[in-house]
Amino acid sequence: MTNRNILLTKLELSLAQIVWGSHPEALTVREIVERFNRDSKKELAYNTVQTMMTILKDKGVVTVKPGPGRAHLYQARLSQSQVSNNMVTDLVDRLFEGRPQALLMQLMESESLGKDELHDLRQWIDQRLQDRAEEE
Question: Residue 104: is it exposed, middle or buried by C-beta count within 10 angstroms (0-12/13-18/19+)?
Fold first, then answer.
């Protein structure tokens, strides 16, 4: 299965983050429910989380194996970086005609970026330019 076209809803992403945060420990649905509800304003029912974990398994984000008793253990199949790269690529394709520089330009023009963040971005770009020059 390719990592392409793995798009997560906000809830799927929240649950995946719980699984990523527990790596390498595998979690039962009950443990995921407890961790989600501990940190969320709106609590989720066990059955809702179980359904969402099945969706994450079907999307290839997590794996499932038998656990204690009748429980199942969920563990990350794809890393947070793999999923976020896929979702950003999809965003660039859909909103910016496949041009990542258009996304970067939009972010740079955003008023939400402060002086320190812009400075950090400049340093990151300068480092990337230096790395590319050394590769040539």
Answer: middle
